[in-house]
Amino acid sequence: MLKVKNLKKVYQEHSLLAIKDLSFTVHDSEIVMIIGPSGCGKSTLLNIISNNDNNYLGEVIFDKSKIGYVFQEDRLLPWKTVEENVRLVNMEGEREAALKILDAVDILPFKDYLPKNLSGGMRQRCSIARALYYGSDLLLLDEPFKSLDHLLRNEMLKLIAKINQDTNISILYVTHDIDEALLLADRIFVLSKRPSIIADDFRIIEHPMKRNLESPKFVDLKNRIINTLERP
Ligand SMILES: Nc1ncnc2c1ncn2[C@@H]1O[C@H](COP(=O)(O)OP(=O)(O)O)[C@@H](O)[C@H]1O
Ligand SMILES: [Mg+2]
After folding, report:
1. d(CA 207, CA 53)
2. For a tag on the chain, would you pick the N or C end, based on fewer CB atoms within 10 A?
3. Helix (H, G, I), strand (E, B), or coil: what is residue 100?
4. pLDDT tens-digit profile of 202-215?
5. H-helix or E-strand containing 90?
6. Distance (Å) of CA 65 to CA 32, 77, 131, 161, 218
7. In this structure, how many other beta carbons lie within 10 angstroms of the beta carbon of residue 205?
8. Who's near 224: CB < 8 A, 6+ residues apart?
9. Does ligand 1 have an atom closer than 6 angstroms to the CB of 41?
């Protein structure tokens, strides 16, 4: 379980209040999606949770040890192969386990490729494999599929849903894309413009990726989220 309590973040050097007051919990094996406008502090939030930024007020409590991070850009080492990039994060791990994960995310046939010879989707699969091989209990995703086309993005969302189901890893996923959130989330938090607070939250019970976004319920939900995002 991850608990964020009265989190506040000021970028002191610019006297910029990025996050005003955020409190929320991500339960074990839950998929929480955070939607917010550009610049509202989503990446700032994930940097704090992942311990890359310790300069904040409030509390961040995570009762398990391992947090994996999948960024918008893949951050793979260009001179290492897919397999090497994945195994790098867990040098004592067994090769068999790494290959199994590469198979699960559907890039096993490309294990000896360098990142530059992979498509964007395959590179993101590789970053996801890396986070899984690291043994993450919580996966943080920062607009990970922004640069992918629509079909590929849906494939990747399905992959995230499958990982969550097969492994019980909790997922905290930030995006500015409402459809992504509607397709995947157990819970959605809608952030206000900067300085951010949670302006609204929703719980969705339908099975992820089996939702019809054209149905009245989801059209209504989407409109409510748009209204919240557009609030001054
Ligand atoms: N290192 C930094 N120093 C100063 N300001 C920053 C820094 N990183 C981000 N910001 C500012 O904080 C706000 C939130 O940024 P960010 O968390 O990247 O937003 P998002 O990911 O939601 O688009 C923005 O106004 C951004 O310009
Ligand atoms: Mg960002």
Report:
1. 34
2. C
3. helix
4. 999 999 989 999 99
5. none
6. 19, 25, 13, 22, 36
7. 5
8. 200, 202
9. yes
Mutate to test the pocket of ligand 1, among 8, 10, 11, 48 (most ligand atoms within 8 A of CB): 11
Count CB atoms within 10 A of the CB of residue 191. 25
Q: 135 and 65 in contact (C-beta within 8 Å)?
A: no
Residues in the chain: 232
Report the alpha-carbon distance of residue 66 to residue 29 in Å, rounded: 14
Q: What single letter denotes the amino acid at residue 117?
A: N
Task: Sort 185 into a burial class: Cβ within 10 Å, 0-12 / 13-18 / 19+.
Answer: buried
Ligand 1 centroid–CA 102 distance in Å is: 33
pLDDT in tens, 27-68: 999 999 999 999 999 999 999 999 999 999 999 999 877 999
Please give the DSSP secondary-structure letter assigned to residue 36: -
d(CA 1, CA 88): 27
Beta bridge partners of 201: 189
Domain boundaries, the chain: 2-230
Tell me the residues surrounding ligand 2 (ion) with CB < 5 Å.
42-43
* CATH T-level fold of 2-230: Rossmann fold (3.40.50)
Q: What is the pTM of this model?
A: 0.93
- Centre a 10 Å sphere on the Cβ of residue 120 and count the other Cβ atoms it contains: 15
